[in-house]
Amino acid sequence: MRSLLTALNLILSGDRELFTTVGTSLSFSFFSTLFAGILGIAISTILILTRLPVRRFLISVFNSFMAVPTVVVGLLVYSLLSRSGPLGSLGWLFSPYAVILGQSIFALPIVISYLWTGYSRLDIRFFETMQTLGCSFPSKCLLVWKEAEAAIVSAILSSFGRVLSEVGISMMLGGNIRWYTRTMTTAIALEITRGEYEYALALGILLLLLAIGINTLTLRLVGPQKEMA
After folding, report:
1. What is the Cα–Cα distance from 205 to 6, expressed in whole angstroms?
2. Residue 216: its pLDDT value, please?
3. Residue 194: inside a domain
4. E-strand stretches of the chain
5. Measuring CA to CA, which of 70, 76, 157, 195 is 20 to 30 A from 125?
6. Torsion angle (degrees, nearest 10) of CA 124, 129, 132, 135
7. How many CB atoms sit inside 10 A of residue 225's CB?
8. In 78-100, which positions are buried (b, 16+ CB within 10 angstroms) versus exposed (e)?
9. Residue 228 located in a structural domain
10. pTM of this prediction?
11. Domain count, the chain
């Protein structure tokens, strides 16, 4: 009980380091989801509107990538950004750029898989009508995005939540550097090992509140659209 009260006091007092860590996590997650969202929407839209013979295979690959542990993604990106790696000259390792790159790669299959599921539920007559009317490819994209708006919102918010709660990529690529790359999850892991349970608990409470908030927002935005459909 005393630990919980101490953790709540840290939150209510507006502890600077605590909320800097929260802000860093949100910033990394926002840009990672943004980049993964843009690329994921483009890829999934191309796959649903074209008849590529390998599209089922590609979807299976992306679905499989969703099960890859974050530490494996972190290891892959680490090997690319290390001094001996092909992108080592960028000097991104243990910087926000490395974390955002790794998290974007992690989030990309999530976005694509969610969107493919949403696109696949669209009425086949919708696609046939666009083909009959001779819509251009850009027009088809806009119509699909409008029709699958709920799926897009769900994909983006779900990937944001997954990225926000991951720890392996942030630890391996960011280095858990104070005031620079330390996120909520890496800080929790660090503070537990240091015996600072109250500080870790405060971060855990904030992370839980953010997760609940994201889930609630998803239900509020997506739920009404599903009912209308």
Report:
1. 12
2. 87
3. yes
4. none
5. 157
6. -110
7. 14
8. bebbeeeeeeeeeebbbbbbbbb
9. no
10. 0.89
11. 1
Contact assessment for residue 65 and residue 162, using Cβ atoms and an 8 Å cutoff: no
Q: Which residue has the tokens 């009508």?
A: 129
Length of the chain: 229
| Two structure tokens written together for 95 | 């910087």
**Side chain identity at 218, as an amino acid letter?**
T
- Domain assignment present for 107: yes
229 in a domain, yes or no? no
Per DSSP, 134 falls in state T
Closest CA to 110 of 64, 54, 77, 144: 64
Q: Would you say 82 and 175 are in contact if contact means Cβ atoms under 8 Å apart?
A: no
Task: Give yes or no for a contact between 152 and 41, defined as CB atoms under 8 angstroms apart.
Answer: yes
What CATH number did the domain enclosing 189 receive?
1.10.3720.10
Domain that holds residue 177: 2-223
Phi and psi, residue 90, nearest 5°: -70, -25
pLDDT, tens digit, for every residue of 19-68?
Answer: 999 999 999 999 999 999 999 999 999 988 887 888 888 888 888 888 88
